[in-house]
Design brief:
With 234 residues, the protein is mainly beta. Helices cover 12% and strands 50% of the residues. It has 2 domains: 125 residues, Sandwich (Immunoglobulin-like), CATH 2.60.40; 80 residues, Sandwich (Immunoglobulin-like), CATH 2.60.40. The strands form 3 sheets. The chain has an 8-stranded mixed sheet with strand order 5-6-2-1-15-14-11-12, with no helix packed on it. The relative contact order is 0.17.
């Protein structure tokens, strides 16, 4: 499922407005403040073959805790003070996973305008509740240019009844979609080839044709790389 997220703003007037709103929220704090229990993040390079472009995104997820209940969480900000950039996620735009004490909220699709590389530096994660109380953590992103990161993208070929995958990683995942582009499942593959009939036998909804994306994680760079979609006719 795709989510439409707000773009970062860097104009002075918007930055001043954000600072003013957050300052008012701090002054009006009441009740128990929320807590950021854990933060998970990684940079991603997406090779979008339909649009014939590559861009960088940031996956950011927060595990919150609020004594007043999860429903009391209002929004999450990612803020780069030095560059005067910010992104905001709320209940309409964040992805929620888990339940009970294991709820995570965040997004896989934060990005700079035109998919440019994220500036290196410190980023504040600000978690706010409806009463204006807040919690904060800091992460640091190292500079990884789009040109440098693209070398980790897998090379994929479809033909002769098989999918060939080559690249620096030893293991990949195929994200599988049916003929109507609905996500079906993931399929682990090693570097090399996988027979198409081994996929369709295990995933009957794909027997009428399917598409897939190839994903890998580059551990030493905390980087995810994804290429696709690729199409397989019945």
């Amino acid at each position: 499922m795709k989510y439409s997220l707000p773009s970062p703003r860097s104009k002075k007037i918007l930055w001043i407005l954000l600072s003013f709103v957050l300052a008012l929220a701090f002054l009006s704090c009441t009740g128990e403040p929320p807590e950021i229990v854990r933060v998970s993040w990684q940079l991603n390079i997406v090779d979008d073959r339909e649009q014939d472009l590559s861009y960088q995104t940031l996956s950011l997820f927060v595990k919150p805790n609020d004594p007043d209940g999860f429903e009391d969480i209002e929004d999450v900000y990612l803020i780069n003070d030095e560059q005067e950039l910010f992104w905001r996620l709320d209940g309409e735009s964040w992805i929620q996973s888990g339940s009970g004490q294991e709820i995570w909220i965040g997004s896989n699709s934060l990005k700079m305008p035109d998919g440019a590389s994220f500036p290196a530096g410190e980023y504040r994660i600000l978690l706010r509740d409806v009463g204006g109380d807040s919690a904060e953590q800091t992460i640091r992103l190292e500079l990884l240019s789009l040109k440098e990161a693209k070398r980790y993208l897998p090379k994929v070929t479809v033909g002769s009844g098989e999918i060939l995958v080559a690249g620096d990683s030893t293991s990949y995942q195929l994200w599988l979609y049916d003929a109507n582009r609905r996500y079906v499942n993931s399929f682990p593959v090693s570097r090399g080839s996988v027979a198409l009939d081994s996929i369709t036998r295990s995933q009957p909804p794909l027997q009428g044709g399917f598409s897939f994306k190839v994903h890998a994680f580059v551990e030493n760079q905390n980087l995810g790389v994804t290429s696709g979609p690729y199409y397989v006719k019945p």
